[in-house]
Amino acid sequence: MTDTLYIDALPAGIRSSFIDNGNGLSMHVLEAGRAGQPPVLLLHGFPELAYSWRKIMPALADEGYHVIAPDQRGYGLSTGWDADYHGDLAPFRFINLLRDILGLLSAMDIERIEMLVGHDFGSSAAAYAALIRPDIFRKVVLMSAPFSGPPPIKPQGPDVDIDAALAALDRPRKHYHRYYSTPEANADMHRCPQGVHDFMRAYYHHKSADWKHNQPHTLQAWNADELAKLPTYYVMDLDKNMAETVAPEMPSPAAIDGCIWLPDDELRVYSETYQQTGFQGGLNWYHCRFVDAFTRELQIFSGRTIDVPAMFISGKSDWGTYQVPGALEKMASSACSDYRGTHLIDGAGHWVQQEQPEAVNRLLIDFAATTS
After folding, report:
1. Percent of the chain scoring above 70 in pLDDT
2. Exposed (0-12), middle (13-18) or buried (19+): which is 253, by Cβ within 10 Å?
């Protein structure tokens, strides 16, 4: 069974449990350290799991923290969510994802979080949590996905139909967020010809520092010509799905054997879990981006800043830092009122806490120890 593989693969010092969060989920939760110590909460992204923090949790626990990492709604061994593409999307919007976390903390009798850390889409979830409930989340670390603030109520410049502009390029393209919001995306990956395991190997490799073409830089504007400079895992060829996109980047058997940061037995935790659950739960987070009612709901917070100490960590080879032009600069200058710095780590791409955990651990431990 996948749950046995997942749980049995956990490093020493990390324990697994299931907790009713009072919001419809039985959340699978990983913990390290002792209850009663200052709590740290870690939120994963896509296509990941709480398991993505396996190299971070023991180091923080050794420093005296109670470290908590859940499989978020739509992911892993957590249950109670609807995998139907045509089902109710409302539970996957950011407000309810925050309710998921608050319910989990309440069930664990935790009133405040010393440090909140989010990676990839978990970075966005962490950003809204810190923005909306600074009384609970005392510090926040965003990783790989900068936060430029809530959506504005007043339009900021002309409305750009980026999908039409990308499709009209000489080499027609499409944005991966739009693709991930389509009904075909889950089956494309879950039932791909190469199988889920090889798909995930190629996907993880393609976005890592091991793929030597990942040499990111600042983009000048949110337009098709600039976005077309992004790798195809972000701005895809119009006629290809994601499994087809990453298949040519499958590393050689020798490269797989030499992949220290994600050996095959660790990758199998992901691939067998996703083989069981499919990808739709995580894809629903992307689907929500294109629901106007959910955007309008977040506009309630337009102009509000993250006022707790905030820091950003990413890999130097991570295009995620730059995929939204101007977001990194806005995060540092206006979205966070107490910004403590940007840290780009050598030898890491998008999966920074897995590719270079020692460097990430040093930054997190130092930041957690700073006074607010």
Report:
1. 99
2. exposed
